Amino acid sequence: MTDSKYFTTTKKGEIFELKAELNSDKKEKKKEAVKKVIASMTVGKDVSALFPDVVNCMQTDNLELKKLVYLYLMNYAKSQPDMAIMAVNTFVKDCEDPNPLIRALAVRTMGCIRVDKITEYLCEPLRKCLKDEDPYVRKTAAVCVAKLHDINAQLVEDQGFLDTLKDLISDSNPMVVANAVAALSEIAESHPSSNLLDLNPQSINKLLTALNECTEWGQIFILDCLANYTPKDDREAQSICERVTPRLSHANSAVVLSAVKVLMKFMEMLSKDLDYYGTLLKKLAPPLVTLLSAEPELQYVALRNINLIVQKRPEILKHEMKVFFVKYNDPIYVKLEKLDIMIRLASQANIAQVLAELKEYATEVDVDFVRKAVRAIGRCAIKVEQSAERCVSTLLDLIQTKVNYVVQEAIVVIKDIFRKYPNKYESVIATLCENLDSLDEPEARAAMIWIVGEYAERIDNADELLESFLEGFHDESTQVQLQLLTAIVKLFLKKPTETQELVQQVLSLATQDSDNPDLRDRGYIYWRLLSTDPVAAKEVVLAEKPLISEETDLIEPTLLDELICYIGTLASVYHKPPSAFVEGGRGVVHKSLPPRTASSESTESPETAPAGAPSSEQPDVIPTQGDLLGDLLNLDLGPPVSGPPLATSSVQMGAVDLLGGGLDSLMGDEPEGIGGPNFVAPPAAAVPANLGASMGSGLSDLFDLTSGVGTLSGSYVAPKAVWLPAMKAKGLEISGTFTRQVGSISMDLQLTNKALQVMTDFAIQFNRNSFGLAPAAPLQVHAPLSPNQTVEISLPLNTVGSVMKMEPLNNLQVAVKNNIDVFYFSTLYPLHILFVEDGKMDRQMFLATWKDIPNENEAQFQIRDCPLNAEAVSSRLQSSNIFTVAKRNVEGQDMLYQSLKLTNGIWVLAELRIQPSNPSFTLSLKCRAPEVSQHVYQAYETILKN
Amino acid sequence: MIGGLFIYNHKGEVLISRVYRDDIGRNAVDAFRVNVIHARQQVRSPVTNIARTSFFHVKRSNIWLAAVTKQNVNAAMVFEFLYKMCDVMAAYFGKISEENIKNNFVLIYELLDEILDFGYPQNSETGALKTFITQQGIKSQHQTKEEQSQITSQVTGQIGWRREGIKYRRNELFLDVLESVNLLMSPQGQVLSAHVSGRVVMKSYLSGMPECKFGMNDKIVIEKQGKGTADETSKRRPSAPARSGKQSIAIDDCTFHQCVRLSKFDSERSISFIPPDGEFELMRYRTTKDIILPFRVIPLVREVGRTKLEVKVVIKSNFKPSLLAQKIEVRIPTPLNTSGVQVICMKGKAKYKASENAIVWKIKRMAGMKESQISAEIELLPTNDKKKWARPPISMNFEVPFAPSGLKVRYLKVFEPKLNYSDHDVIKWVRYIGRSGIYETRC
């Protein structure tokens, strides 16, 4: 019997005929008709009109027919929700069938019908099936919970299915365990905060046991789930690794890669001195190499992952260069990836072999591959200095082949070699010049022109060569034009006598006849430089260039660490975080490698860990890219002038979060505390300040004034510091500081364009931070920022943004976007910009609060070498909104009692002890949220010492 | 997870379309057709991202299988699944062709429903599937309760690959050691890379649930045992470990069928398992050390002027003279502008195949330690093409009756405690076949 005939019925009136057949009394005829319907559905015809007729066929003993009807239902139920209800009865009945295969089929299909009314009926059968005696039904029901959750998450929670699912992790059947793990992992992904999986040493142990027994697919689910766990110390990490390593010999590559992921991640926690660490490294290499004998598609996935692994831990595969040699019949995508890895593994030890291979590849057929091979030779030269000479001679050999694109590519890389090893290989210039005519790609032309310009003094006919390019100046691409302009100016500075005419010609071409602003600008600059001060021009144009670095295409370390957590998945194939290609909230949870320190106490899974957790050594954490990317996507849609409408409440929540309800109890009046015996309110315990002191204070007031010029009774402003060096941001340098003036906070920025291209379209966005700082207006840069131009901007801030506790507390992560790219940096803001104007507490209240805050919240600090007296201190602090509530003199010491309030309502109380003879002050701080104390102390330091 | 699975013919018409997730719509079917199948260029990647939707594809003859997803799925798993899907289909209806797929579309839908649930791969062992997904389909009424629960426990059970109650009158097993030896040699005869990728394929016709233990001359095992005996008898037979070490081979890495207890291999390096019934691949392995290269190819290409090439190729067999290699084929590539070829060979037949741009030299049999030669004159059309001929490597195919890696099966013991047959009653056959993988010499 063949079924292909069903594909061929295309006549008109077909639907009508089918309808008749579906309602036929003969079973065989019915089945035939349903098959025809399914065939039509497959090729994309709309057969939804037959819905009632098909559903009528559902009541049957014939399992094959039943499955076909179910298939139809899954496709069309959504378009006919009312009629789909007709099927409910059969489903419910089937869920009670004595045959477990039918029970499972019913529950599996019901989960696929995305109609609200049906899902209501699904709950009861599903509950039964989750506890079915047959493992086949249970494993199907486990997946069904995930399906239901996708349709109606609330329903799943309300019905308590999640708990049942959790129980299934302890099921006796390994496949049920595996499916339950898969379902829970998926549900947990959409609830990043919930501790659904609740991974702890006990449950991990269960999973590891099931790992040995379940199917290959189940092993993958379990390993992927294990990778989300963070062991509590290095011992646990090691014991898990020991139990996962056997999986490296599994025939299924996905099992192997998932095991590699777990090992790579947990290895992070092991000390490098450990013997086991070395053993593990050795164990990882062979399975990775074996993956390369799999089918080409899998090889590709493996190679993309190996590319990451090689960057993270080069030692694993450093002796395995040979396996990455390209085979003649490899598909092109495998070839290109292998080449990439070969370059990464190239070292002095194996460079001879690598070069011989690369030379071989340069004669292949595929243009992309050949180009990449040629480029790779250049990269070897830059990476392994000892080989540079050999690489150059290989490149020269290739140029001799005269194959057009080979020559061009070779010239581009030779330019890079010149930049890495200046004044070493100029002897080859003659050969290069012979090939001038064959260059037709802009990049190659530009590279050649650069070489001629740079070494103009050694090339006798440099002027002729450049002149020949000048003829078609307007037809060249911008890249070539710019390069030509610079090269001719260089030539002129080197041989001024013969080339005056040429330089005038190019300057007029660039400035008068060109519409390209970049070119015009550069032309004018050269022109003016040359006409005003040729010596300066020489210094500028012929300045020594920085050497180019070894590896340019490495993945940025934080991204690399994140991608290591995604080994085996699509993210590792694309080399992008999931947020870059996954829509919506799903799967965009950040993963990070566990910290190496064995003492980490937290047992939270990486999903709940803050993004900053991984590299504990460096405090200024670069924000994980995805987060900011997401934020900046918002930015593109509309400027985030003010926070979302719920912002204020979220601030409250954040504050509560931070303080643990400190604010309420702080403000609540507790009458019995007032006037406690320990604290004598300082009335006019006036100790007459001596003359010198008052004079001193006056002077310091004056001084205050001078230093405060421009801030207008505002608080202290630190000088601008460089936040984002130009190196890191493709030429954009950002420096800035924070100010607070009469109640408003702003961020004073200075943007400098150190690139050669105009910057426009600036925008700024903050990551969530401890105090909800957010830009109150968009970043206004009115005119485009031309090269070497600087602009100063004051960006008003508010504190109604969303709140997330940062480490350190005053860390602010900022993303700045311009037409070139998005850049990230983080900075620490001084806490005193958050001190509000109404921060003066009334004395009674102060007294009560001071008593009320437990003593363990008190922190003491020393402020050394501060020459000011009490008066001066008090007034200076007041200008930064730290208010002196009371003052008294005890045994010759001045005691200042001060209060301040932060924007989020946190009160901080201070006692400052000043001894006239001693320039060191003692500062005691009391606050409901002791974590701010350190920063308040720093604020004191900055204010008093500047 | 996998959001949908589509099968297309070479024209891009959909033969099978099964959607598992709500985020995949009908337009995904068209997106793949337009962007990949109809792209009319070489496939640049097996994974394609179109509008935030990722497509994984594999091709079998002229049939495209594509898995679609919008999530960050385990990519290795998706490909493994697609291969598995192909295996399952092949096991049910043979070759994967448009005709076979159309003829079996109902069956394929049934299979897809079973082995992929909400995009999660489920048990896909054909042995288990065939017990309850049959092409007759009407079996359900006739199954007894025991049969049903046997099916479900096999599908979900620890030993999902074997059912209980198998009986054979004659307990028999066949072991095939199949190796493919890969070589890349420079024109000067220097080995650039060489490795053997081998497979041990077992065909078992054994009753009950037999516990098997497989042993080979793995260096690590032999050395361990050698050490054991050396410690005991070190004074009497000091040369014993050295001798056994010589006969053992170093295995770089190996992978096993899911029936093998991996943790046991990891701790004791012993290979123990309960085999599936019938044929399966027990293990795969890879070796790179001390490989016996069965043939050596010595090329000599000389360009005589611009319109003539002289090619001389010598092949030498390098194994015991008593053994015979078969199906020997040497493929010598010729330039695209070849106009005529004259060939003289000492042995076998040689022909110039213009459509394949190669001289194909075939020899039926060749004994060990022999040598043979071919010489050819290739006439070329003069061309203006500046681009040099890429000179693809000379490749070779052959089959030899030994394992180039040196692997030897030492034992395969069978224990079936419940049934009364012993290891001695089982008839065992072992065969070694070494084939050429990618066996190339550059010229």
Task: Describe it.
The complex is a heterodimer of chains A (946) and B (443). Chain A is α+β, with helices and mostly antiparallel strands. Chain A has 39 helices and 13 strands. In chain A, the strands form 3 sheets. Chain A has a 5-stranded antiparallel β-sheet, with no helix packed on it. Chain A has a 5-stranded antiparallel β-sheet with strand order 9-13-12-11-10, with helices on both faces. Chain A has a 3-stranded antiparallel β-sheet with strand order 4-7-8, covered by helices on one side. By secondary structure, chain B is α+β, with helices and mostly antiparallel strands. Chain B folds into 3 domains: 129 residues, Beta-Lactamase, CATH 3.30.450.60; 138 residues, Mu homology domain, subdomain B (Immunoglobulin-like), CATH 2.60.40; 106 residues, Mu homology domain, subdomain B (Immunoglobulin-like), CATH 2.60.40. Chain B is built from 9 helices and 23 strands. A 9-stranded mixed β-sheet of chain B has the order 11-13-9-8-23-21-16-19-18, with no helix packed on it. A 5-stranded antiparallel β-sheet of chain B has the order 2-1-5-4-3. Chain B starts with a strand and ends with a strand.
Labels describing this entry:
heterodimer; A: 946 residues; alpha+beta; Immunoglobulin-like; five-stranded antiparallel β-sheet; 13 strands; B: 443 residues; Beta-Lactamase; 3 domains; nine-stranded mixed β-sheet; 40% strand
Summarize it.
The complex is a heterodimer of chains A (946) and B (443). Chain A is of the alpha+beta class and 946 residues long.
Which topology of one domain in chain A does CATH recognise?
Answer: TATA-Binding Protein
Radius of gyration of chain A: 36 Å
Provide the β-strand percentage band of chain B.
35-45%
Round the Cα radius of gyration of chain B to an integer and report it: 27 Å
Proportion of β residues of chain A?
A: 5-15%
What strand line-up does the widest sheet of chain B have?
A: 11-13-9-8-23-21-16-19-18
How far from one another are the termini of chain B?
Answer: 47 Å
Counting helices, strands and paired strands, the structural category of chain A is alpha+beta
**How many strands, what sense, and barrel or not for the largest sheet of chain A?**
5 strands, antiparallel
> Distance between the terminal alpha carbons of chain A, to the nearest Å?
93 Å
Largest interface: A-B, 115 and 107 residues
Helical percent range of chain A? Answer: 40-55%
Assembly state of the chains shown: heterodimer
CATH second-level architecture of the largest domain in chain B: Sandwich
Dominant shape of chain B: globular
Number of strands of chain A: 13
Question: What are the low-pLDDT stretches of chain A, counting only 5+ consecutive residues below 50?
Answer: 598-712
What's the overall average pLDDT of chain A, rounded?
A: 80
